[in-house]
């Protein structure tokens, strides 16, 4: 308690100390915009004197060129075409076509805004700080001499990537568009899929220096209002310099920062995010990154992929079971190998035991060391593979396979069965992308336990992991729902995927009592066309 | 508060890490340090009162090389028979470590062969180790060697690399002829514990065939308590198995109805039920056997696929089976060994009468009568309806 | 004021009791020495005799909803005598917990991992139990159904795999053994699997609705006993008269599974299932112990006591007995005598006194 208070005191003291030594005019000033154009321009030029990409354009407009105005904008953020055609042109030329209202008073910004500017998205500003904020986000500022307000006109043109297939979540069947770095494009993609007036998009501005746009997207009568309230509260608590990626937000709002399992999911695909919003969750979109966060997260979500729902239930169920198995193999593979061959050799069939023993004849290391070396080497390979330039990629791949596989076995450094174990572990770890990091850590943990106490250690490790997972909550919802607080209707979509026409209710841990928990009507099972009784048609 | 928890956590983590360092990986044995034993043999040592233990250890490196074409160093044997002596089995086992340098790993031991001299002396002293050692499994097969166990362990087989695996395979496939029976340690111990039932075990001998030594199963040994008292031949063994209901398959040979040749039947399945009856001190065992067989071979040219021929052959089958059973029964009476487990059956069904009979079982056993009721149906004749007969053609 | 803030629901109570009773599967192996092939009878008789007593526990919990055992003792017997009886309970819980931890250690030391130092096994096991208790009752109750499912699958599958080696005539003759041995066996069965459910009096107080407690408890008991019964039947049918000589008939009968060449060496299944089930039982007992001690001393939360009690338990488990023979002899003969008053005398007495004195009074100071 006292440490917290002392931390706050120190933080504010540091801030005020920095503020005193700051010799530029205060950024956080709440000074109003003056009516004198020259003074305004001076002040702005003073704040932004080290930025050479700000353009100040002074001009005269109105009948008899009575009014003096200035346009301020940042070169690379704005669309020059828009400015010329829709701001300067009406102001400087088209106003001359006004015959009847020659005496319109353009010192009132409202008049200018409602009669002359032909761009939508304008906002009146009275404070200097707001003006600077808008200027830096790419708006064009119109200052009129004699007006106490300024006009911010939205004229952004930002270069961004076109909509492409997401690199990390490839599918066989399903839409191939992915989010990109511009949050407006992302919101448009979501809007395209949910055309419901209940869709709410709330804007937040987080980050002292980056002022990143963060949006919460949810459906009003479906998502639990307590959940949204909690998200709002956690987001407003964040006081940091910059939000560069959604991962920053994730690490500031998650439930269990010390746990190795993620409690906030992320995705690059709009259809996945939209499906989760429709189940009652909320999505958090951050400008500057294609990864959208979705809260709350359940453990089984890491095993579900969008494709499961677009294919028919049989293959989807098998694929799901295979994913579960892969996760188990990737976490437990080396541990079971070590436990069996070092502590419990009586459990291996005789023929297999003789083959393994024959393979390990020349290996100088004990099995645990061998296993940990191999896993470690594999992790190095994986990390290096991500950062390789494309040109070198192929060569290193071949070298990796040859060196780590064949040559090591022949040199007598590792045994052939170790290669098989590690490669199957490695391949299995990619089948469940959301849990790769937790899988990696678990692998080392179980290996250590297996080396110390064999099968007993692995069982105790598994029990501890199970207990930890069952005590995790993600925004109030038990992490292992529907397996651990056992819920039969939720189990329809866990290990197997029941057909779509059976899943008529939303997962009831996430929705609340007052909401509309039926997402589709009953009796939707398809059947062949029934002929009329007299055989016609 | 967080600082206190952090300190506590770090202390716990340090203690946990110390566990690793202090206790290490004790309890584990590296797989290439194991001496994998796949067969053990127990004999009486010639010179002293000790026993001689032979353990067949696998040489893993040799196993990988392909069999046949023995190019390569050494004698190409994939196994190594080590010997140890001692007054008890466990002592002999540990004695072997003087030669191997590693403790023996007996979890994969499939077979235990006892020498005949040991069997004649009494096995109860020696089987305790094989049941008690925690690495041993109760599925280990027990065998008696015709002469000495180490000769059997030394005979290198043709198709398998390891003699012990070869013997195990031999015994496990008893079902093809049902001329002997697989006995594992648990069954042997169970019979020994009974007091009235006589344990049996297969007898293994070596036949010298030109210069190949082949191992074959030559019959079953019969024990009285733990001493070997006699043997059962193949037919007698099958008679025993008929009564126990453990016949899986086999060949039944009878004379053909016209007495000119032989007909061979393959036994498809057989079930048995034994009902004990104790009346006024007289014990009668009713044995009901139901089976199915198929006609597999005939040496005559007679057409046997007729109903009358079937009836005659069924009667002949019944008689053949009855003879096997009576042969087994007579042998058991001669050796005074209750190999069928009749005593146990009486104990289970008529516990009150058993109490008075139990102590005099040795005298009562030869007086038991056997009443058989056998029914074997012939189900099929395989691929031929009529036999190939020379010179006869339909005109 | 209650120490535990969480609530459990009725279905979780069912699974808790099932898991608790099921974890005594290896305990049956102790009684086989005494009751040989009539173990199944002893189990059924034990269940029949224990049901009224367990129903009295449930009635007590229903009457004093929201209070755990220590509070009930205080309310029924008065301040001083109630605390004395609570100390008796705490002593019983401590000894039972250390015996169970010792059970797991012996299981591994004898069968599965004999070369590993004993103390490592004890420390790991107790550490995981302590972690479970640290997380709280709700987490334990939530995962209870997983443990029960594992136990049922293992017991039923080993039974099915051994069907071809079973010989049901091993159960005859039905009434061979003298009655005194059966009586001894029933006594052991009563005090160990069924009597130890007295620990549930610490947990039943936190149930959120009391309407269906009786039904759920009974169903839980039946399923647990069914598992015990299946295990006992399997052992007797497969092993016959050798059952009485093995240290653990369950293990030996699973070692006999040999189907194809693939399904051999399945005794590790029993090992894993037994470890998980005993872990579950020890967590429940540990939880009961920790809450009881902290309630007795009037603490606000039981968390600080978890580690010290865990340490004490490990030390007791490591030093109390010299060998498994000692363990078996003492628990069979002496252990059941000191626990009889606790399980079969005091709770019905408490219920009677509560009925006579018309407790709980409307204006009680503690409790819900």
Q: How would you describe the overall organization of this protein?
A:
The complex is a heterotrimer of chains A (537), B (395) and C (368). With 537 residues, chain A is of the alpha+beta class. Chain A has 3 domains: 23-154, no CATH class; 183-304, no CATH class; 310-471, no CATH class. In chain A, the strands form 3 sheets. In chain A, strands 1-2-4-5-3 form a 5-stranded antiparallel beta sheet, with helices on both faces. A 5-stranded antiparallel beta sheet of chain A has the order 6-7-9-10-8, with helices on both faces. Helix content of chain A is 45%, strand content 12%. In chain A, helix 6 crosses helix 9 (270-278) and helix 11 (313-343) packs across helix 13 (367-387). Chain B has 395 residues and is α/β, with parallel strands linked by helices. Chain B has 2 domains: 32-61 and 77-232, no CATH class; 234-385, GMP Synthetase, Chain A, domain 3, CATH 3.30.300.210. Chain B is built from 13 helices and 13 strands. In chain B, strands 1, 2, 3, 4, 5, 6, 7, 8 and 9 form a 9-stranded mixed beta sheet that branches. A 4-stranded mixed beta sheet of chain B has the order 10-11-12-13, with helices on both faces. The relative contact order of chain B is 0.09. Mean pLDDT of chain B is 81; it is low at 66-74. In chain C, 52% of the residues are buried. Mean pLDDT of chain C is 84; it is low at 363-368. In chain C, helix 4 (69-77) packs antiparallel against helix 5 and helix 5 packs across helix 12. Chain C has a single domain (37-351), classed as Amino acid/polyamine transporter I (Up-down Bundle). In chain C, strands 1-2 form a two-stranded antiparallel ribbon. The A-C interface holds A 343-344, 346-349, 452-457, 459-460, 463-464, 466-468, 470-471, 478, 480, 483-486 and C 11, 108, 112-113, 116, 120-121, 124-125, 127-128, 131-132, 135-136, 139, 142-143, 145-146, 261-262, 264-265, 268, 271-272, 275-276, 279.
Query: Spans of chain B with pLDDT under 50 lasting ≥5 residues?
Result: 66-74
What low-confidence regions of chain A span 5 or more consecutive residues with pLDDT below 50? 21-26
Largest sheet of chain B: 9 strands, mixed
How many strand units of chain B?
A: 13
Give the overall shape of chain B, derived from the CA principal axes. Answer: globular
Average pLDDT metric of chain A: 84
Alpha-beta classification of chain A: alpha+beta
The order of strands across the largest sheet of chain A is 1-2-4-5-3
């Amino acid at each position: 308690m006292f440490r917290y208070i002392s931390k706050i005191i120190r933080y504010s003291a540091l801030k005020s100390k920095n503020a005193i030594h700051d010799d530029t005019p205060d950024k956080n000033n709440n000074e109003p915009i003056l009516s004198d154009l020259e003074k305004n321009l001076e002040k702005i030029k003073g704040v932004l004197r080290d930025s050479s990409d700000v353009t100040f354009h002074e001009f005269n407009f109105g009948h008899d060129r009575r009014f003096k105005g200035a346009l301020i904008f940042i070169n690379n953020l704005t669309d020059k075409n828009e400015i010329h055609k829709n701001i300067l042109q009406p102001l400087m030329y088209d106003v001359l076509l006004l015959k009847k209202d020659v005496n319109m008073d353009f010192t009132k910004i409202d008049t200018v805004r409602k009669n002359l500017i032909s761009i939508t998205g304008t906002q009146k500003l009275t404070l200097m700080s707001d003006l600077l904020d808008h200027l830096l986000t790419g708006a064009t500022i119109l200052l009129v001499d004699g007006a106490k307000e300024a006009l911010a006109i939205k004229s952004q043109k930002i270069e961004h990537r076109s909509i492409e297939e997401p690199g990390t979540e490839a599918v066989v069947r399903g839409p191939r568009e992915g989010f990109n770095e511009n949050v407006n494009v992302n919101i448009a993609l979501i809007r395209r899929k949910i055309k419901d007036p209940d869709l709410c998009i709330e804007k937040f501005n987080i980050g002292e220096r980056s002022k990143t746009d963060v949006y919460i997207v949810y459906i009003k009568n479906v998502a639990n209002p307590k959940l949204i309230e909690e998200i709002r509260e956690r987001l407003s608590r964040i006081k940091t310099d910059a939000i560069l990626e959604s991962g920053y937000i994730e690490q500031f709002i998650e439930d269990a920062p010390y746990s190795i399992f993620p409690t906030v999911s992320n995705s690059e695909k709009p259809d996945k995010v939209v499906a989760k919003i429709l189940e009652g969750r909320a999505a958090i979109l951050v400008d500057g990154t294609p990864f959208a966060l979705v809260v709350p997260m359940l453990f089984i979500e890491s095993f579900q992929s969008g494709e499961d729902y677009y294919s028919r239930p049989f293959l989807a169920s098998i694929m799901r079971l295979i994913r579960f198995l892969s996760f188990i193999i990737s976490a437990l593979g080396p541990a079971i190998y070590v436990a069996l061959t070092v502590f419990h050799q009586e459990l291996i069939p005789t023929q297999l035991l003789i083959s393994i023993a024959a393979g390990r004849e020349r290996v100088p290391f004990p099995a645990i060391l061998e296993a940990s070396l191999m896993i470690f080497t594999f992790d190095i390979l994986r990390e290096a593979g991500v950062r390789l330039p494309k040109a070198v990629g192929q060569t290193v791949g071949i070298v990796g396979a040859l060196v780590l596989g064949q040559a090591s076995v022949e040199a007598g450094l590792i045994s052939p069965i170790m290669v098989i174990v590690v490669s199957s572990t490695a391949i299995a770890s990619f089948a469940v992308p959301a849990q790769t990091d937790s899988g990696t850590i678990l692998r080392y943990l179980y290996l250590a336990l297996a080396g110390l106490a064999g099968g007993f250690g692995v069982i105790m490790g598994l029990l501890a992991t199970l207990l930890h997972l069952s005590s995790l909550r993600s925004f109030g919802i038990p992490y292992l729902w529907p397996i651990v607080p056992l819920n039969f209707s939720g189990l329809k979509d866990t290990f197997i995927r029941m057909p779509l026409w059976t899943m008529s209710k939303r997962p009831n841990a996430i929705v609340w009592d007052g909401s509309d928990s039926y997402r589709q009507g009953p009796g939707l099972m398809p059947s062949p066309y029934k002929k009329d009784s007299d055989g016609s048609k | 508060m967080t600082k206190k928890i952090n300190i506590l956590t770090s202390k716990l983590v340090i203690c946990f890490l110390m566990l690793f360092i202090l206790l290490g990986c004790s309890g584990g044995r590296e797989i290439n340090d194991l001496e994998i034993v796949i067969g053990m043999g127990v004999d009486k040592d010639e010179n002293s009162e000790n026993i001689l233990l032979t353990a067949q250890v696998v040489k893993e490196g040799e196993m990988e090389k392909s069999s046949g074409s023995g190019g390569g160093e050494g004698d190409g044997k994939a196994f190594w028979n080590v010997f140890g002596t001692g007054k008890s089995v466990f002592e002999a086992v540990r004695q072997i470590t003087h030669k191997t340098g590693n403790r023996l790993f007996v979890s994969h031991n499939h077979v235990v062969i006892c020498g005949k001299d040991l069997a004649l002396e009494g096995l109860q002293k020696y089987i305790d180790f094989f049941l008690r050692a925690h690495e041993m499994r109760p599925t280990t097969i027990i065998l008696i060697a015709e002469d000495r166990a180490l000769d059997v362990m030394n005979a290198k087989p043709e198709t398998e690399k390891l003699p012990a695996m070869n013997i195990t395979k031999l015994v496990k496939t008893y079902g093809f002829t049902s001329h002997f029976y697989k006995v594992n340690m648990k069954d042997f111990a169970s019979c020994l514990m009974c007091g009235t039932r006589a344990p049996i075990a297969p007898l293994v001998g070596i036949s010298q065939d030109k210069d190949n030594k082949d191992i074959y199963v030559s019959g079953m040994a019969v024990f009285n308590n733990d001493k070997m008292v006699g043997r059962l031949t193949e037919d007698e063994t099958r008679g025993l198995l008929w009564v126990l209901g453990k016949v899986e398959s086999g060949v039944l040979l009878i004379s053909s109805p016209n007495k000119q040749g032989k007909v061979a039947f393959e036994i498809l399945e057989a079930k048995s039920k034994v009902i004990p009856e104790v009346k006024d001190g007289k014990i009668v065992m009713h044995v009901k056997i139901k089976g199915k067989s198929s006609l597999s071979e005939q040496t005559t040219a007679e057409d046997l696929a007729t109903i009358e021929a079937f009836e005659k052959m069924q009667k002949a089958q019944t008689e053949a089976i009855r003879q096997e059973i009576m042969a087994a029964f007579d042998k058991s009476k001669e050796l005074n060994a209750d190999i069928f487990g009749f005593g146990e059956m009486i104990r289970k069904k008529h516990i009150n009468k058993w109490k008075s009979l139990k102590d005099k079982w040795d005298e009562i056993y030869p007086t038991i009568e056997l009443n058989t009721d056998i029914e074997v149906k012939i189900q099929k004749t395989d691929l031929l309806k009529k036999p190939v007969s020379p010179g006869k053609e339909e005109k | 004021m209650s120490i535990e803030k969480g609530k459990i629901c009725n279905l979780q109570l069912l699974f808790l009791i099932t898991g608790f009773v099921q974890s005594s599967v290896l305990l049956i192996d102790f009684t086989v020495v005494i009751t040989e092939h009539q173990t199944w009878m002893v189990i059924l008789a034990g269940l029949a005799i224990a049901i009224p007593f367990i129903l009295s526990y449930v009635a007590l919990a229903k009457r004093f909803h929201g209070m755990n055992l220590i509070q009930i003792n205080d309310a029924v017997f008065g301040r001083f005598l109630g605390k004395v009886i609570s100390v008796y309970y705490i002593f019983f819980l401590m000894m039972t917990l250390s015996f169970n931890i010792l059970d797991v250690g012996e299981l591994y030391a004898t069968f599965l991992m004999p070369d590993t130092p004993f103390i490592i096994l004890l420390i790991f096991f107790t550490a995981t139990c302590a972690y479970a208790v640290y997380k709280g009752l709700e987490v334990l109750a939530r995962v209870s159904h997983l443990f029960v499912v594992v136990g049922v699958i293992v017991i039923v599958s080993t039974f099915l795999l051994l069907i071809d080696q079973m010989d049901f005539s091993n159960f005859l003759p039905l009434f061979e053994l003298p009655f005194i041995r059966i009586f001894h066996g029933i006594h052991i069965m009563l005090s160990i699997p069924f009597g130890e459910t007295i620990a549930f009096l610490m947990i039943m107080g936190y149930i959120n609705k009391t309407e269906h407690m009786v039904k759920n408890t009974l169903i839980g008991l039946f399923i647990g006993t069914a598992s015990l019964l299946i295990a006992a039947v399997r052992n007797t049918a497969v092993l016959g008269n050798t059952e009485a000589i093995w240290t653990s008939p369950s293990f030996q009968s699973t070692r006999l599974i040999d189907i194809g060449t693939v399904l051999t060496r399945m005794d590790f299944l029993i090992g894993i299932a037994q470890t998980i089930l005993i872990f579950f039982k020890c967590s429940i007992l540990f939880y009961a112990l920790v809450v009881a001690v902290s309630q007795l001393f009037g603490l606000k939360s039981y968390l600080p006591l978890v580690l010290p009690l865990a340490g004490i338990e490990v030390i007791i488990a490591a030093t109390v007995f010299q060998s498994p023979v000692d363990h078996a002899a003492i628990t069979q003969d002496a252990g059941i005598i000191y626990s009889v008053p606790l399980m079969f005398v005091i709770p019905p007495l408490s219920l009677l006194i509560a009925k006579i004195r018309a407790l709980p009074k409307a204006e009680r100071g503690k409790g819900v």
